[in-house]
Amino acid sequence: MIPLIKAGEKQTNPDFNYTKIYNKCFVDLNRDVLLPPTALSIGSHEYKGNDYYNNTFSYGEFSAIVAGSKNKKTFFKSALIASYIGGQSSNYFSDFKSMREGEPFIIDIDTEQGEYYAQRAFRRVSEMVGETYNNYLPFGVETLEVDEIILFIDGLFNDSRYKGKIKWLSIDGVADLVKNTNDIIESVAVATKLKQWRKENNCHINTIIHKTSTSNKATGHLGSYVQKKSETVILLNDTEDYKVLNSPIEVSQVYSRGAPFETFYFKLDDNTLPIQCDSNSKEW
User: What span, in angstroms and rounded, lies between the C-alpha atoms of 195 and 197?
Assistant: First the structure.
């Protein structure tokens, strides 16, 4: 951490290399910088008379799913991963378009559920795809301490079997990477870690975090930092009281650096798999 400088004092931090930072941060306006490639898109938009897929989830970026308790956020996460893999997932969410190339590794971290419920959620991905994708690697880390979870994810990115080959990381829920979501230092550290992971590994990181009970904002200082730094923030809201069996979930994009998608709905089918509903009638 760079020490605070009092008036009249010079910066004396020996670890700070001004020239290196200058060259790293200078933006050359004469150099063409390409839009980050898309990992997964939701919907499309028109620009100058042409149709383009929305760059909802780009490589080298991270996103956030914000929702209250029992708003089927883990179901929606499963839908995103299944759609990124492909297979039969388009039968459930036809507006999702995967840009996956080759056979990258997909890491699915569940920090909250016990082994039984975590496995049920992980199996949902294969059911939606219609087969097992061998490079889909699910992990239940409920028993790990905060520091252990971060070190474990670090280890995955540096594991020789996966290094440079992980293109999608899901963290359900990112609040378990801190001891206190209202601790500014911890929150900044985790947001910085997410930026480091996604940039160094050129992957997309999708996080899940609870919203506050009084607003649609993500919980605590952690939620604020994650929302501010995310490429895409998606809000899930139940259209009825959550006690109403299988009421539709509204999916809206509240923040976006690219073209936003139109609000839509999903619910669970007879096999308890998430499936998109008509956005107007909310029926199949």
Answer: 6
**Sign of torsion over alpha carbons 63, 66, 69, 72:** negative
CATH of the domain at 128: 3.40.50.300
pLDDT at 47: 75
Percent of the chain whose predicted confidence (pLDDT) is above 90: 72
Task: Decide if 166 contacts 104 (C-beta within 8 A).
Answer: yes
Q: Which residues of 148-173 are buried (b: 16+ CB within 10 A; e: fewer)?
A: ebbeebeebbeeeebeeebbbbbbbb
Contact 274, 268 (CB under 8 A): yes
Q: What pLDDT is stored for residue 5 in this prediction?
A: 47
- Count of structural domains within the chain: 1
Q: What is the pTM of this model?
A: 0.88
Alpha carbons 214 and 16: distance in angstroms, whole number:
42
148 domain-assigned: yes
Residues of the chain with pLDDT under 50: 1-5, 280-284
Residues 75-87 have pLDDT tens digits of 999 999 999 999 9
Distance (Å, whole) CA 147 – CA 176? 10
Residue 9 placed within a domain: no
- Quote the domain boundaries for residue 155: 60-277
The structure tokens 């492909």 sit at: 86
